[in-house]
Amino acid sequence: MITKTCFKCGLVKPLTDFYKHSQMADGHVNKCKDCNKKDVRGNYSKKRDQYREYDKYRQRYNRTRIFNHRYMQLKQRVEGRAIRPYKVEGKELLGFDEYCLWLKDNMDDFEKIYQAWAQSGFIRKLTPSIDRVNNNGSYTADNMKWVTVTANSKKFTKYPF
Questions:
Q1: At a CB cut-off of 8 Å and minimum separation 6, what does 4 contact?
Q2: Which residue has better confidence, 120 or 161?
Q3: Do 119 and 148 meet the contact criterion of CB atoms below 8 Å apart?
Q4: Distances (CA, A) of 107 to 63, 67, 136, 146, 156
Q5: pTM
Q6: What DSSP string runs through 128-148?
Q7: Residue extents of the structural domains in the chain
Q8: How confident is the model at residue 157 (pLDDT cuts 50, 70, 90)?
Q9: Are 62 and 71 in contact (CB under 8 A)?
Q10: What are the DSSP calls for 33-101, one per residue?
Q11: What are 109-145's pLDDT values in tens digits?
Q12: Is the pLDDT of residue 57 over 90?
């Protein structure tokens, strides 16, 4: 078994206890995973507000991130991996390529909702959300539209399952 000494804690550990890094001589970082995790946690604690602001910025201003996140939410609902059960579980989901085409075709609707959301100072209830036109249907291009979170949740309470 190949071992390595962590420069931080000084312990000799197996190479599997070190993260891989292609630019290091032996292909692994010089600090063990435990020390690395400790340092990351400490750094995050010291700069928590800075990281939160950065995360907010990424979630609000990066459209690609918004679109990918929305698709992952749809996928989780269909696959039954969402926080709560959804009526759409086990139904059809358009593929990512089809989703990208749907985005392109519906960009004007997204932009209207996004601009209102941005002008409001990113109030959560105005966040762009994907709604199924027919709640009994699946996530297909002809059964989806952009709405706000508020409009989508009102529809849910109006038509519970």
A1: 12, 13, 14, 15, 17, 18, 26, 28, 30
A2: 120
A3: no
A4: 11, 11, 25, 9, 24
A5: 0.69
A6: EEEEESSTTS-B-GGGEEEEE
A7: 49-158
A8: low
A9: no
A10: HHHHHHHHHHHHHHTHHHHHHHHHHHHHH-HHHHHHHHHHHHHHHHHT-SSS--TTTTS-B--HHHHHH
A11: 999 999 999 999 999 999 999 999 998 899 999 999 9
A12: no
Look at strands 128-132 and 28-32 and give their pairing.
Answer: unpaired
CB 93 within 8 A of CB 138: yes
47-73: average pLDDT: 92
Are 88 and 77 contacting, i.e. CB atoms less than 8 angstroms apart?
Answer: yes
In the three-class reduction of DSSP (H, G, I as helix; E, B as strand; rest coil), residue 123 is classed as coil
- What's the CA gap between 149 and 117, in Å, rounded? 10
- Residues ≥6 apart with Cβ < 8 Å to 98: 141
Question: Six-digit token pair at 48?
Answer: 């928590």
C-beta of residue 39 within 8 angstroms of C-beta of residue 31: yes
